[in-house]
Design a protein that fits this description.
Chains A, B: InterPro entries: 6-PGluconate_DH-like_C_sf, NAD(P)-bd_dom_sf, PDH_C, PDH_N, Preph/Arog_dehydrog, Prephen_DH. Chains A, B: Residues 1-285 form the Prephenate/arogenate dehydrogenase domain. Chains A, B: This is Prephenate dehydrogenase. Chains A, B: Pathway: Amino-acid biosynthesis. 2 copies of one chain form a homodimer. The longest helix of chain A is centred in the middle third of the chain and has 24 residues, at 174-197. By secondary structure, chain A is α/β, with parallel strands linked by helices. Chain A has 10 helices and 9 strands. Chain A folds into 2 domains: 2-172, NAD(P)-binding Rossmann-like Domain (Rossmann fold), CATH 3.40.50.720; 176-278, 6-phosphogluconate dehydrogenase C-terminal like domain (6-phosphogluconate dehydrogenase C-terminal fold). In chain A, the strands form 2 sheets. The first copy, chain A, has a 6-stranded parallel β-sheet with strand order 3-2-1-4-5-6, with helices on one face. The relative contact order of chain A is 0.11. Chains A and B meet through helix 6, helix 7, helix 8, helix 9 and helix 10 of A and helix 6, helix 7, helix 8, helix 9 and helix 10 of B.
Chain lengths: 285, 285
C-alpha cells in the first residue's frame, strides 16, 4: 500500500517511524514544505521519497495521513482535491472534529473516503526531530466515522493504527469526541497554563517543588500557534468543562475556609475511587 | 549513631531503606503501634529492633525521626518528653510547619534540638509495603530552622539527608515553607481532586484519555485522613493560591469565550517560558 504522510512534523514523523518499526510492508512517502526535513527522512529510510507538492505523488496514494495544523487543513485539502484518485482513503490527526469535518466533507469528491481520526498521543515539542514511534505504543486512538464513510475503510484504519502500536481504538461521534477531548485534553491544558502562570516567579519555586507540581505543569509547554484555534473550535464544550471544574474547586475551597473536614473527606474519597477506576484499565505507562 | 524512626509507614520506611542503601554506619531502630510491621522490618534487616513504646529505646537515641500523621504528632511528642536525653536531635516530616512548630516547640526540654523539616517526596500510598529508597533519590528537602536550633545540628541534618539521597536541601523559614508548599503541593492536590471529581463518570472517560489527563490526576489518589488537616493548618496561604489560580483560569476562559487569540497566545508563551525555567534545573526525573 502506498501511504503519503502530509506534514512530516512531530506526529507525521511519528507515523512514519511507527510504520517502519511495525514491519508492515507499506511504501511510505511524505509531502512537506521543508526540504531539509524531507531529505533527513529519506536518509533515515523513514520514507521512500519526499515531495514539496502533491501533483506527483497524491494521485498514486492509497492512503493519505494529513498531519498539519488544524487552521490550514481545509486549505491544504482543498488544494489536493484535483489530485485525489478514486478509492483513496484519507485520515487526519486533528484534535477537534465537528468544525473540521463540517468544513472539509463538503469539499470531497464522491469516491474518496476521508475518515477523520485523532491519535491520543500528543507531543509538546514540534518538528521531526521530536518524532518517536514509542509515543504511539499503547496509546488510545479515536476514530469519528460519518455517514459517508465506508465500513470496510473504517475497519482498515482501525486495524492499521492497531498494527502500528495503538491499543484502545474507539469509534465515536464527532460530537462525543469534542465533548470528551474538551475534558481530558483541553481542560487539562487550560489548568496547566493557569497553574504555572499563577506562580510567583520571584519565589524561585523550582527549588522547592515535588513531583506533584512537575506532574501538573508538564503540559504547560504548549504550542501557542496550535492551541488557541483548537480551544476556539471547541469553546462550547471547553467553557462548560472549565465551569464544572471551577464548581468543584469552589466547593473544596469553601470547605477549606470553613474547616469542613467532612466535605473534604467526602471529596477525597470520591477522587480516590475515581483514580482507581481510571487506572484499573491496563493503560499506557 | 543510634537513629529511631517513629512511625514505620511509607515515609518512615523509606527513611529506613534509604539509610540502609546509603551504606552509612548507623544503628536504626523503629517504634510503631503495629507489631507486624516491626517484625517485617526486622526480618528485612531494615531495623535492628522494633519497639511498641518509647521507654526503652528513646533514652538511647542520638537522632529521632518522627514520621507520624500531623494531627497526632503533638501528642506523640508530648508522651515522649520524659524519655528524651540531653543532646538528642529530632526531626519530623510534616507537610505544614507554622502550626506544628508553634504547638511543639513550647513542649521541648532545653537540651533537645528539634529541627523541623519536610522531605519533598510524598507518596500517595500508605504503609511500609510502599516504602522505597528510590523516591528520595534526587528529591528536594526543606529544613525550617528556628532560633532555638543549633547551627551544627542543622548542618548535621542537612548532611544526613544529602547522604541518603536528597539533592537540593534548602533552609527556609516556616512561613516561607508554608507559603510555597501551599502552592506546589496543596494547590496541585486541590486541582487534581476537583478535576477528577468534575468528570462525568457515565462517559467512561478512561477509554479516551491521553497522557495529560493521567498526569493531572495522578495525585488524586489522596489520603483523606491526612490532607484535610494539612489544608486547614495552612488555609490562609492555600486559599490565596487557589484564588490566584482561579484568576488565571478566568482570564483564559474569558479569552476562549471572546475568541481572543492574542491573550491566549500571550498566556501560552508565558507558560512555555515558565515551563522551561522550571525544567532548567537538573531535577529529579
Amino acid at each position: 500500500m502506498k501511504i503519503v504522510i502530509v506534514g512530516l512534523g512531530n506526529i507525521g514523523g511519528s507515523f512514519a517511524l511507527a510504520i517502519k518499526e511495525s514491519g508492515l510492508n507499506h511504501e511510505v512517502y511524505a509531502i512537506d514544505k521543508d526540504i531539509e526535513t524531507l531529505r533527513t527522512a529519506e536518509e533515515q529510510n523513514l520514507i521512500i521519497q519526499g515531495f514539496e507538492s502533491p501533483s506527483e505523488i497524491i494521485p498514486k496514494a492509497d492512503f493519505i495521513i494529513f498531519s498539519v495544523y488544524p487552521l490550514i487543513l481545509e486549505d491544504v485539502v482543498r488544494s489536493y482535491i484535483p489530485y485525489l484518485s478514486d478509492g483513496t482513503i484519507i485520515t487526519d490527526v486533528t484534535g477537534v472534529k465537528r468544525n473540521i469535518i463540517g468544513s472539509i466533507e463538503p469539499l470531497l469528491p464522491e469516491n474518496v473516503d476521508f475518515i477523520f481520526s485523532h491519535p491520543m498521543a500528543g507531543r509538546e515539542n514540534s518538528g521531526l526531530a521530536f518524532a518517536s514511534a514509542k509515543v504511539f505504543q499503547g496509546a488510545n486512538y479515536l476514530i469519528t466515522p460519518t455517514p459517508r464513510n465506508k465500513t470496510e475503510n473504517v475497519q482498515f484504519l482501525s486495524q492499521f493504527v492497531k498494527d502500528i502500536g495503538f491499543r484502545n481504538i474507539s469509534e465515536i461521534t464527532p460530537e462525543f469526541h469534542d465533548e470528551i477531548i474538551g475534558f481530558t485534553s483541553q481542560l487539562t491544558h487550560t489548568i496547566a497554563i493557569s497553574l504555572i502562570n499563577s506562580d510567583l516567579v520571584e519565589r524561585n519555586t523550582k527549588q522547592y517543588t515535588g513531583d506533584s507540581y512537575r506532574d501538573l505543569t508538564r503540559i504547560a509547554n504548549i504550542n501557542e500557534k496550535l492551541w488557541p484555534e483548537l480551544f476556539i473550535m471547541n469553546k462550547d464544550y471547553l467553557v462548560e468543562h472549565i465551569d464544572n471544574f471551577k464548581h468543584q474547586l469552589d466547593k473544596l475551597s469553601t470547605a477549606i475556609k470553613d474547616e469542613d473536614v467532612k466535605t473534604m473527606e467526602e471529596m477525597m474519597v470520591e477522587s480516590k475511587v475515581r483514580y482507581h477506576d481510571l487506572h484499573s484499565l491496563d493503560m499506557k505507562e
